[in-house]
Amino acid sequence: MILRSAPASPFGRKVKMAAHIVGVIDRIKIVNADTLNAEDDLRQQNPLGKIPTLILDNGKVLYDSRVIVEYIDHLGGGGRLIPAHGDDRYDVLVMQSLADGLMDAAILQIYEMRFRAEDRREPKWIAHQAGKVDRGLAALEAHPPHLSPVSHIGTVSLACALGYLDFRFEGAWRKNHPRLVAWLDDFAARVPSFALTAPH
Ligand SMILES: N[C@@H](CCC(=O)N[C@@H](CS)C(=O)NCC(=O)O)C(=O)O
């Protein structure tokens, strides 16, 4: 299988971690994609031109990260990353949605900086996205993850979101979220694929 991704992509990191945890990373060749380059064949593989995109051996193409993670979980027999049923399933899936939302809101702030000249940036839009990150972090600080196993797709996604805030926003979130900082330290110590997939 071929994974189109990029070293800085938090959603790509989520998929890479999922593949490590399930034990299928050796079956995946990672090919970097440039989402800004119209010549990159990513846009033929995924019309949205987004990463991560996974190309299966039979040519079928999977996106986005949630679909890829579901497939990876299936390769491992199912139920390792996403509980098959019960309350835990929905707790894990909602945690993934919240973490994905943090990443989306953080990425949109970065794109505003990247795509617009300084005098054309919209502070209201940036504040709107920053509000999502602030409220999401506050909710997680009040109730840090406690479900077992330590690494399911909710916690993996959250670790990737916090890692992205460290990478692109100089870890400013750490100051006011001590319980989340402690949670991430513990997660990083127990889940080796977090360090193995660090953004650069
Ligand atoms: N919902 C998507 C989000 C993926 C995403 O936003 N990827 C970013 C890079 S981390 C991207 O491809 N951006 C390029 C673009 O939006 O054109 C997922 O879960 O995979």
Explain the layout of strands and helices.
Layout: E1 2-5, H1 10-22, E2 29-32, H2 42-45, E3 53-55, E4 61-62, H3 65-75, H4 87-115, H5 123-142, H6 153-169, H7 178-190, H8 192-196
Parallel strand pairs: 1-2
Antiparallel strand pairs: 1-3, 3-4
Helix pairs in contact: 1-3, 1-6, 4-5, 4-6
Bound molecules: glutathione.
CATH class of the largest domain: Mainly Alpha
What is the SS-derived class? alpha+beta
Q: How is the largest sheet built, in terms of strand order?
A: 2-1-3-4
CATH topology of the largest domain: Glutathione S-transferase Yfyf (Class Pi), Chain A, domain 2
Per DSSP E runs of 2 or more residues, the count of β-strands stands at: 4
Order of helices and strands: EHEHEEHHHHHH
Strand fraction:
5-15%
Overall, the morphology is globular
Instruction: Report helical residue fraction.
Output: 55-70%
CATH architecture of the largest domain: Up-down Bundle
User: What is the overall pLDDT average?
Assistant: 97
Assembly context of the chains: single chain
Largest sheet, if any?
A: 4 strands, mixed
Number of domains: 2
Rounded to the nearest angstrom, the radius of gyration is: 17 Å
- As residue ranges, the low-confidence spans are none
Number of continuous helical runs: 8
N-to-C span: 23 Å
Can you characterise this structure?
There is one protein chain. This protein is α+β, with helices and mostly antiparallel strands. The protein folds into 2 domains: 2-75, Glutaredoxin (3-Layer(aba) Sandwich), CATH 3.40.30; 87-196, Glutathione S-transferase Yfyf (Class Pi), Chain A, domain 2. Helices cover 56% and strands 6% of the residues. It has 8 helices and 4 strands, in the order E-H-E-H-E-E-H-H-H-H-H-H. A 4-stranded mixed β-sheet has the order 2-1-3-4. A hairpin with a 5-residue loop joins strand 3 and strand 4 (61-62). Helix 1 runs antiparallel to helix 6 (153-169), helix 4 runs antiparallel to helix 5 and helix 4 (87-115) runs parallel beside helix 6 (153-169). The longest helix is centred in the middle third of the chain and has 29 residues, at 87-115. The protein is globular and about 45 Å long. The two termini are 23 Å apart. The mean pLDDT is 97. Bound molecules: glutathione. The site of glutathione has 13 residues, from helix 1, helix 3 and helix 4. Residues 9-11, 35, 49-52, 64-66, 100, 107 line the site of glutathione.
